[in-house]
Amino acid sequence: MKKIIVLLCLGxxxxxxxTQESKIPPPVIEKPIVVSEAEIxxxxxxxxxxxxxxxxxxxxxxxRAVAYFYKNKYEQCWQDVYMAESLGCKFSANFLESLKKAxxxxx
Length: 107
What we know:
Elements: H1 2-17, H2 37-53, H3 58-70, H4 74-86, H5 93-103
Helix pairs in contact: 1-3, 2-3, 3-4
């Protein structure tokens, strides 16, 4: 449960602090965070519920996109990337490049 809370906080902080005018570099994670399939499913459920309650919650789409990426559900990930970006969130170029390679498609 601690891991889920840490991931959610990191994602929300990242999305909330990035505006079109600011260029804050993403935090450097020295040690990879290992998350189980059940925890990823839980993260997706949590953010899906948050999006149902608040359809303009950019952070919900942002975090759910990242969770979908780690679950190899690239179409759902792309859909959430588009929604998050349309609501003002910016994804790192590295994330988008990884998603393009993994899904074998262009934006």
